[in-house]
């Protein structure tokens, strides 16, 4: 069994504590226990003059394992471990490579000195999970760098580069060379200079101007009030405590805030979505399959859909050959691509040189030579498949773009093993979601290749059964149907949109237009949301029941990334879990009096209720 923490003491008296917990050196309960024991041993050894904390692999620790948050934390907690490190009587140096995020960065902040690879990053992204930092980050960071830096890092959650962190006073030194020898040399330098522990808890650099500190507290408290996730307010409370309270009392404030956040529905939803996105990225049907080589890409088709895919491919670094049925169609697509890039330049989102470089990788060909040589051909619309399929070389992947709600008729294809559907709810260059529509005969390596290509496009890919027209269109269609049914009963359309907008929806059934009439029936905002959410959850359950969706969490990923469902509500399936499946089923049963065919609950509700399960639970199976 591999040691999770290795302790080696070199001739210079430097104790090397090396974490080895692939793939991301997560600070699990066993890692924490082993690390605490190694620190005890190193501190007690009279030959040790400094302790160097390193990590194997590509990255410094990434924080605790997410599934531990749903259970009582085993000792030592990460907060207790950080206190142990900080209170060590010998200088502790953290050597950071890759990314030190969340608990990993808190571990580094507890060390007395920090050295990092120049390409490393550090950050506290816990707000994306609806959590506050849990191991002293809210107390140490503002002491080192002030309220503005601490609050911005914790509010935004994005990592900062090592050079920027050094400028902010969070890292003492960066190196462009090999980290381990540079860190060891730094440790020896500290030993020879007689430097002792330099504890963040004792630092006051970030609090030199109390008035400016409080000004930032006020500024970010105003921001927090506008944030639908209450975690933001608790972060402000904790950072303010760093200024007003002793260090240990501040840690208690942080602990209380974490406990409150863990119980919140928003945090449960955000943590669920984080895992759901990882589940969606797994394609077990393609396990073990080697992706096909894709170096030449061609598109066939016209209109905005073709232009959007071309821009997405060019943005990802591909050379693209543009083809269509006739010259006017090809010219039209090329002009649309140029217009998209011109607009990006006008809006200062792209440099002229970047536009020229990308357009330089686009070729507009009248003949079929490039089409016949392409490794992947993106065909816009099923109607173009009969023209393109005979031209494709053996082994070429044919990715067929169809609009939401339209499936792929794989029976019409001569080579269904080489084909897959791709579906984007908005123009492919703008949206974050691509639904992959696989057929029964789609080859595993085609699934693997298109999933990897989608990630290269910086898109979220979700696979479903391709004949049915995708997940998002069905679930969003149910929401629209429920909204239109209320409108038919006399509800005001703008009121319906406003209720869903207040809930957090970015996409609205009636487009947010100010369409008003004489409302004959009054629905409260809660009733509007209840009906639309129940309709979406039921549509999703029917997709799972029919085997069209692989798991409920895939539906939530699709709705969040493609249809504007608020992330902090977890998607329609997770929201049903949080509401209670029995409650949702009762709502559907009552609404059957209005339309039994539409509102009839999926049998999956009864099955889950009977077995005490949830949509989230079966997503993990």
UniProtKB/TrEMBL annotation:
It is found in: Peroxisome. Residues 528-613 form the 3-hydroxyacyl-CoA dehydrogenase C-terminal domain. This is Putative enoyl-CoA hydratase. Keywords: Fatty acid metabolism, Isomerase, Lipid degradation, Lipid metabolism, Lyase, Multifunctional enzyme, NAD, Oxidoreductase, Peroxisome. Belongs to the enoyl-CoA hydratase/isomerase family. In the N-terminal section; belongs to the enoyl-CoA hydratase/isomerase family. The keyword Cytoplasm does not apply. InterPro entries: 3-OHacyl-CoA_DH_NAD-bd, 3HC_DH_C, 6-PGluconate_DH-like_C_sf, 6PGD_dom2, ClpP/crotonase-like_dom_sf, Enoyl-CoA_hyd/isom_CS, Enoyl-CoA_hydra/iso, NAD(P)-bd_dom_sf. Pathway: Lipid metabolism; fatty acid beta-oxidation. Its main location: other. It comes from the Bacteria. Monomer. The keyword S-adenosyl-L-methionine does not apply. GO terms for biological process: fatty acid beta-oxidation. It comes from Actibacterium lipolyticum. GO terms for molecular function: (3S)-3-hydroxyacyl-CoA dehydrogenase (NAD+) activity; enoyl-CoA hydratase activity; isomerase activity; NAD+ binding. Its EC number is 4.2.1.17. Residues 297-463 form the 3-hydroxyacyl-CoA dehydrogenase NAD binding domain. PROSITE patterns: ENOYL_COA_HYDRATASE. It catalyses: a (3S)-3-hydroxyacyl-CoA + NAD(+) = a 3-oxoacyl-CoA + NADH + H(+).
């Amino acid at each position: 069994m591999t040691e999770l923490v290795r302790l080696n003491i070199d001739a210079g008296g430097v104790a090397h504590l090396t974490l080895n917990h692939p793939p991301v050196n997560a600070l699990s309960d066993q890692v924490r226990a082993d690390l605490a024991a190694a620190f005890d041993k190193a501190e007690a050894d009279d030959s040790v003059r400094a302790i160097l904390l390193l990590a194997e692999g590509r990255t410094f620790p990434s924080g605790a394992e997410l599934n531990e948050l749903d259970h009582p934390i085993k000792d030592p907690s990460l907060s207790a471990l950080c206190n142990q490190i900080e209170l060590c009587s010998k200088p502790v140096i953290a050597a950071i490579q890759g990314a030190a995020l969340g608990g990993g960065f808190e571990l580094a902040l507890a060390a007395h000195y920090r050295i990092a690879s120049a390409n490393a990053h550090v950050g506290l992204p816990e707000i994306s999970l609806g959590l506050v930092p849990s191991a002293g980050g809210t107390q140490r960071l503002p002491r080192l760098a002030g309220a503005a830096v601490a609050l911005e890092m914790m509010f935004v959650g994005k990592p900062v580069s090592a050079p920027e962190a050094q400028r902010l006073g969070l890292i003492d030194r960066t190196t462009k060379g090999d980290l381990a020898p540079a860190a060891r040399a730094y440790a020896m330098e500290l030993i020879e200079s007689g430097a002792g522990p330099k504890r963040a808890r004792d630092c006051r650099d970030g609090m030199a101007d109390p008035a400016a500190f409080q000004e930032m507290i006020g500024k970010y408290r105003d921001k927090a009030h506008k944030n639908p996730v209450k975690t933001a307010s608790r972060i402000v409370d904790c950072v303010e405590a760093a200024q007003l309270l002793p260090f240990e009392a501040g840690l208690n404030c942080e602990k209380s805030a974490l406990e409150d956040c863990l119980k919140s529905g928003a945090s449960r939803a955000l943590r669920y979505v984080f895992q759901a996105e990882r589940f969606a990225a797994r394609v077990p049907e393609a396990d073990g399959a080697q992706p096909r080589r894709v170096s030449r890409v061609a598109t066939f088709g016209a209109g905005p859909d073709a232009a959007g895919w071309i821009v997405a491919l060019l943005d990802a670094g591909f050379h693209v050959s543009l083809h269509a049925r006739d010259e006017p169609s090809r010219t039209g697509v090329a002009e649309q691509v140029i217009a998209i890039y011109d607009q990006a330049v006008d809006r200062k989102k792209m440099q002229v040189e970047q536009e020229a470089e990308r357009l330089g990788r686009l070729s507009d060909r009248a003949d079929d030579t490039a089409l016949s040589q392409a490794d992947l051909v993106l065909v816009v619309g099923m109607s173009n498949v009969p023209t393109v399929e005979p031209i494709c070389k053996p082994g070429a992947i044919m990715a067929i773009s169809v609009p939401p709600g339209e499936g792929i008729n794989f029976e019409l294809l001569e080579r269904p093993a080489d084909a897959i559907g791709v579906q984007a709810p908005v123009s492919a260059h703008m949206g974050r979601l691509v639904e992959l529509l696989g057929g029964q005969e789609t080859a595993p390596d085609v699934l693997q290749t298109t999933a990897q290509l989608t990630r290269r496009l910086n898109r979220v890919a979700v696979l479903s059964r391709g004949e049915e027209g995708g997940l998002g269109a069905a679930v969003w269609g149910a929401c629209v149907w429920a909204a239109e049914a209320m409108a038919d009963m006399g509800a005001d359309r703008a009121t319906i949109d406003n209720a869903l907008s207040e809930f957090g929806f970015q996409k609205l059934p009636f487009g947010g237009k100010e369409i008003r009439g004489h409302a004959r029936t009054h629905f409260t905002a809660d009733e509007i949301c209840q009906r639309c959410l129940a309709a979406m959850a039921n549509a999703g359950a029917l997709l799972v029941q029919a085997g069209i969706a692989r798991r409920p969490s895939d539906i939530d990923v699709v709705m969040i990334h493609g249809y504007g469902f608020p992330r902090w509500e977890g998607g329609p399936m997770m929201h049903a879990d949080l509401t209670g499946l029995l409650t949702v089923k009762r709502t559907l049963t009552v609404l059957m009096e209005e339309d039994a065919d539409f509102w009839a609950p999926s049998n999956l509700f009864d099955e889950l209720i009977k077995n005490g399960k949830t949509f989230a639970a079966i997503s993990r199976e």
